[in-house]
Design brief:
CATH architecture: Roll
Shape: globular
Radius of gyration: 14 Å
CATH class: Mainly Beta
CATH superfamily: Electron Transport, Fmn-binding Protein, Chain A
Order of helices and strands: HEEEEHEEHE
Distance between the termini: 10 Å
Number of strands: 7
CATH topology: Pnp Oxidase, Chain A
Number of domains: 1
Helix content: 25-40%
Strand order of the largest sheet: 2-1-5-6-7-4-3
Structural class: alpha+beta
Number of helices: 3
Largest sheet: 7 strands, antiparallel
């Protein structure tokens, strides 16, 4: 069951805590957006957080600032990398709604740099407590 956290909803960034194969955690601040009852984020397809999520769906999430300084409680959840184009389109739409023109410019730079199609889109849900 998905829950949307109000503190997380109002945050501009969140820290994703993903886990290495040996169990050690890695915290990473990311842009994220809510849409269709779930959360979405994007990253370089070969980024460590994407590899860790592919290997272990368990994550923890907390609102944070641009530098990753946590500004609220951690929540447990699960994440998965999106493969279906319809899911990727939903993720992009949610990110564009939240970040607007900034996201558009980020996409443009990514397209010019040839990295747009190398992105991975991730969805995550928070556990119901």
């Amino acid at each position: 069951m998905t829950t949307l956290d109000s503190a997380l909803e109002s945050a501009k960034y969140c820290s994703i805590r993903s886990f290495r194969r040996d169990g050690r955690s890695v915290d990473t601040p990311v842009w994220f957006a809510a849409g269709e009852g779930r959360y979405y984020l994007f990253s370089a397809g070969d980024a460590g957080k994407v590899k860790r999520i592919r290997n272990n769906a368990h994550i923890e999430v907390a609102p944070c600032d641009l530098r990753g300084n946590v500004q609220g409680a951690w929540s447990s959840g699960s994440a998965r990398v999106l493969n279906a184009q319809a899911d990727i389109d939903a993720a992009l739409a949610a990110l564009h709604r939240k970040y607007g023109l900034v996201m558009w410019f980020f996409d443009l730079g990514s397209r010019i740099g040839g990295k747009f199609h190398k992105r991975a889109y991730v969805t995550f849900d928070l556990s119901t407590s």
